[in-house]
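Running this now, will post back.
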Amino acid sequence: MRSPHGNAPRGYSEAGLMENSFAGGGPVETQARIVSMNIEQGGVHTTLLYAPEIALRAVPMQFVQVKVAPLNDPFLRRPFGLSRISPEEGIIGITWATVGRGTSLMGLWREGDTVSVLGPLGNGLRTDRVLRTNPGPHGRRPVWLVAGGTGLAPLYPLALSLGPHCRDITVLYGARTAEALMDTSLFETVGCKVTVATEDGSAGVKGRVTGPLGHLLASFNGPLSSNPPLAVACGPTPMLRAVKAMLRDTPVELYVSLEERMACGTGLCKGCAVKAAPPRSGYFHVCSDGPVFPAGEVLLGGEGQGA
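Update: finished.
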C-alpha cells in the first residue's frame, strides 16, 4: 500500500491546518505517572498522566499509544486520543470505555502507578492555522464540533484552544441514551454552545446528531460562502459518513477524525489503512497520515461502493 501523495510528508494537508507528530521534535516513549483515575458520566474512565515531554509536544486531536500492562500480555499497545493537554502542568489525559481485555486491565491501574506511553502521534489541528484559514468577520470564523459516543473527549482540547479566539463554537453531541452521554459541562465552561441528541429521546433532541446538524445548517446566520464554518467530526464511522454527506455540497470545511484498529501507531505495520477518495488512488494510514483528515480526501466505510 502506498500513500496517495507519493513523496508528500506525513501529515500532508492541502488546507495546511494539520500538524504531524514530528513537528514538535517527534514522539517520545516515556514512563508516565498516573495522577488520577476517575469514572465519569456515561460510564467512561478518564486518566490523567504526568508526561511532560508529551504534553509539551502535543496539539489537539493527536493520540498516544499506551502499554496497558507491565509485561507483554497483551502485546500490542492501545491507541487513545488526548482528552487533556496541559503543557504547564506536564499533564495529558485519556478518556476510555471498557470494551475488551486491554481496557479491562486499565481499570486495575491505580494513582501513582507508571505506564509506558508513546506519543504524541498522528496529526492534530493547529489553532493558529485554523484561525487564519478562511477567516470570518474580524478574522474569526464559526467552528462546529460534531461528536458521537466517546468521540467527544478528544474535541475538548481543541475547544479549549479555540475558545478565546473564535466568534462561535457549537458542539453537537449524540449518544444512544441519556445514560451513555458523557459530561459536556467542560465545553460550556469555555463558551461553547452545546446541543445534545439521544436516539431514544431520553435526553436532548430525539434522534441522531445529524438532526441538530441539519437545523444548524438551515438556520445559519448569513451566507455560508461569506463566512464558512470549520467543522470537525469525531465518532463512529457511520456518523462520520452521515455528517460528510450532509456537508458535501456546502462551503463548510469538514475534517474527520478516524478510529481504526492499529498496532504500531507510526505507519510501519500498515495495518490501519483507509482508502483515498478519487481522483487519488492508494491508501492513507490512520496512525501516520491521520487520524484527522480533510473529509474529501478519504472514503468512509461504504462510500464509493454503492452503499
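Confidence is low (pLDDT under 50) at residues 1-16. More later if anyone needs it.
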